[in-house]
Amino acid sequence: MNGADTPLAGTTVVELSHVLAGPICGLMLANLGARVIKVERPPKGDGQRWDVAEEDRLGTDSASFFTLNRGKDGRMLDLKSEPDRAALWALIDEADVVVENYRAGVLDRLGFGYADIAARKPDIVYCSVSGFGRTGPWAERGGFDLIAQAMSGLMSFTGIEGDERPVKCGPPVTDIMAGVLAAMGVLAALNRRARTGQGDHVETSLLEAGVMLTYLQSALTLASDVTPAPMGTAHPLYSPYECYRCADGWIALGTANEANWRRLLEALGAAEIADDPRFATTPLRVTNRHALTAALTERFGADGRDAWVAKLATAGVPCGPVLTIPEMVQHPQVLARDMIVEAEHAELGRAQTVGFPVKFAGSDTPDLKPSPMRPAQ
Questions:
Q1: Distance from C-alpha of 237 to C-alpha of 258, rounded to nearest angstrom
Q2: Model confidence over 205-259: pLDDT tens digits?
Q3: Which stretches of the chain are DSSP H helices?
Q4: Fewer CB within 10 A of the terminal residue: the chain, N end or C end?
Q5: Of 167, 151, 162, 159, nearest to 213 (Cα)?
């Protein structure tokens, strides 16, 4: 429904951002009901529209642009042109939030940095997303997800056990997480402004988002000076807690406590595993993980993935199938949670996209407007 009681109803955001992290921040705010005005640079606009692989095409723009920018209004403004600068100031004068992910110093030189806008509008919430943050020896450098994943340590423990080659997480996790963290910061600053009347400069970076994702592995290092290494899908503290090959696919199994371990043994009818002293406790199962994995893989290979998921779920064992993206977008639980939805597309009418992952019982949900077409100057 497109009701007036969305969480951010009445909030206006000017989004001066491109490609991924900044637009994801704007997307989060738009999905909460804010009016987000995306300002792009002429003549082509956001590179995510056009500088993409052919399989990403959806109409004249890209599927990824549509996914990241649905629900936003659009303007094409040249910030070096006086008429367009005046048009941007008119937008900012009516805005509550400005989101930007330009390289450090660019907007300051153009007269749209935080100090410039706050001097004119002290209650503005100004959010900057960058590769490495606005302070420190790397503040001036441009950053990308691949580099942030490398520097945060994520690549050092992602991948196949025993393989020393660095492996990135499949999705651009630092870009996505930085956008979500930026939106969280904006919400906090808006809450403070409601109490004090004062705006703020909120900022985060891809590097900080990546470091945050190492909570567990960094805790191990800081507590005991261990250097985490790749473990495939396994867990450093629990076993069995990884993926196992079945007759026709893979299953993800989570038995992170003794009760689930006992339920698993009962469902498998695996007396020989239950009686093996190597697997008597969680620490022993972690120490002897390779032997346990071999024993469980032999069991799981006797039946298909979906059959095992059904049997283990009936026994109360946390588990799930390892799905491809085509399988995921059709899974009944994903669909029941409105994570694959249809949204208006300016050229195609309706198109499928990924839904918003937060639900509210007492707030309206805004309709998903089309992503902005390349607007005329």
A1: 13
A2: 999 999 999 999 999 999 998 999 999 999 999 999 999 999 999 999 999 899 9
A3: 21-31, 47-50, 63-69, 82-93, 106-110, 114-120, 145-151, 173-196, 206-212, 215-224, 258-268, 271-274, 282-287, 289-300, 305-314, 325-328, 332-336
A4: N
A5: 151
All structural domains of the chain with their residue ranges: 12-213
Token pair belonging to 318: 């946390």
- φ, ψ of residue 156 to 5 degrees: the values are -70, -20
CATH fold for domain 12-213: Rossmann fold (3.40.50)
Query: Bridge partners of 61?
Result: 58
Cβ 188 vs Cβ 182: under 8 Å: no
- DSSP code string of 199-225: -EEEEEEHHHHHHHTTHHHHHHHHHH-
Angle at 194 between CA 190 and CA 199, to 5 degrees: 55
| Separation CA 236–CA 244 (nearest Å) | 16
Residues 6 or more apart whose Cβ sits within 8 Å of residue 174? 145, 148, 149, 152, 154, 206, 207, 209, 210, 213
CB-CB contact of 239 with 285 (8 Å)? yes
Could you read off the pLDDT of 133-191 as tens digits, one per residue? 999 999 999 999 999 999 999 999 999 999 999 999 999 999 999 999 999 999 999 99
**Where does the pLDDT of residue 376 fall: very low under 50, low under 70, confident under 90, or very high at 90 and above?**
very low
Q: What is the distance between the alpha carbons of residues 121 and 134, in angstroms, rounded to a whole number?
A: 21
- What distances in angstroms separate CA 44 from CA 19, 210, 376, one per listed residue? 13, 31, 10
Catalytic residue numbers read 235
Backbone phi, psi, residue 216, to 5°: -65, -50
Residue that has been written with the tokens 């300002």 in this structure: 39
Residue reference for tokens 């949900």: 365
- pLDDT higher than 90, residue 72: yes
Q: Give every CB contact of residue 183 below 8 A, 6+ residues apart in sequence.
A: 24, 25, 28, 29
Q: Closest Cα to residue 131, out of 97, 178, 182?
A: 178
Which residues have CB under 8 Å from 284's CB, separation 6+?
Answer: 277, 278
CB-count exposure of residue 331 (10 Å: 0-12, 13-18, 19+): middle
